[in-house]
Fold:
Amino acid sequence: MNIEIRTDKNIQNSDRLIEYVRAELNQEFQRHSERITHFSVHFSDENGDKGGSDDIKCMIEARPAGLKPVVVNHKGHNIDTAIHGAIERLKRSLEHTFEKKENPRGAQPAFADADLDDDEDV
Structure:
């Protein structure tokens, strides 16, 4: 899994931030490590120096192998809440995407014990 982390001019990028984000993504998406080829994480501070609540935005783009990229956004009052909110949204989106790929709607449902129902007279 390749992980790319970017910040805007209002958020200072550091080795500590990079290691933290990589650790969180690896921990949360370890079971999908063969399915996801790339993560792109971008942090931005929408209000800059003004401050305010929920002004830190985290955007995560995940690229599942053989599928279209999945992009989620989440705003929080600090980097920690923004990244965790985005990770939770990404987990739900990826689970849904993988489930759709594995079980498309057009597939015929399997009926358990269909032969037994025909033999019974009610």
